[in-house]
Amino acid sequence: PADKSQSPLQEHYRVRGREFERTxxxxxxxxxxxxxxxxxxxxxxxxxxxxxxxxxxxxxxxxETSVSVERSVREADVFIIQSxxxxxxxxxxVMELLILCNAARIASAQRVTIVAPYFPYAKHNKIKKxxxxxxxMMADMMKVAGAMHVITIDLNPAQMAGFFQIPVDNIxxxxxxxQYITSxxxxxxxxxxxxxxxxxxxxxxKLANALKLDMAxxxxxxxxxxxxxxxxxxxxxxxxxxxxxxxxxxxxxGNIIGRVKGRxxxxxxxxxxxxxxxxxxxxxxxxNGASNVIVMATHGLMSGGCPKALQDCPCISTVVVTNxxxxxxxxxxxxxxxxxxxxxxxxxxxxRVHNDECMSSKFxxxxxxx
Length: 370
Known about the structure:
alpha/beta, globular, 17 strands
């Protein structure tokens, strides 16, 4: 028999100082679409010895997407890194991902794993009258395209993993958020974790328990004795007819369960997309005596004028998100935005999947702020 020591399957990688071997699953190969190239390059850098394979993406004259892999992936263990939201439109990102996945499978890859830090159409996970469930459709399409495994971050709700007929690793990012709080929030032991609604309470409770901090929650109650959100250049106080804006109507009465007076309040949620609910919640907290408000979310989608609105809001001191979605443009528009890099967490997850290792043991990654 051939000397296995000469086999390319025995080549070594290093992940943040830890060495590991390529397994019989095939040579580890990283591919990426155009959604979040910066994140993909960061993951490749964290996987010392790995590099991004060349992928050619183009458009036909009629707008259809063409994707081809420019290197051999035969019998390789392929990981495709593509967020559902990024520097290209969501639907383009989805088509790139599915076509690239199918191209790798047709090219005889031994295993294809989709790494979707922000899962596309994750917000559309419930059935409504005469409507579809696009998140379930995405899960089905990934399998049909040839994916054999999916890695994602902070899938919400976690029960969405039941949509898949293939293995799913839903990586929790709260350990990185807790590291940020302990290292960047002065006197964090007196801070309070706040859920802006009942849906965010489980996430806030988990983080509060990990840090042994108090928790509070805002409950919306309609009332005539409402308060107004301070006007700012990016959000006028009222429209031309004098009606209040959606943000001003978001919390007619900020009923808060928990003690926030004189304390730093950390608003926690999974997705930061529309600024209105966060600005309304921050205003309610400041009206009730909070010393300052920090907004913290895993996925910083920040659609439209969200970054500018958060920057102009006097009630919010800092906004913290991860780089599951590209944040370079958002940081220009919102200087108070801090970005936690999750490259190391994704790289460690890829390493464990590639080596068929357990996911339950604690990840030990250093906090990196962009």
